[in-house]
Amino acid sequence: MINNTPWIRHRQGSINDIRKELSVLVEIQKDNRKVMNIKRTRLLKKYNIEVKESLDQLIEELKRKVSAKTQRLSTYRKKQTQ
Questions:
Q1: Which residues contact 13 (CB under 8 A, 6 or more apart)?
Q2: Is 69 domain-assigned?
Q3: pTM over 0.90
């Protein structure tokens, strides 16, 4: 089966991790206090975010990364089914 290859599992795990971080960053952007302080400080420190403009840019960049990685997987799957 196609889904059992190690690089696909790794790629899907990477996509899931980025999506998790992306959802937390969107909540931070909305200034939602439900985001735990630990997650908030960890992500802001990881991506070195100090101002809101850089947060907006980071969110857009992560959206592009997720889109690109999912496109690679779908292209690979299409080639495998041909």
A1: none
A2: yes
A3: no
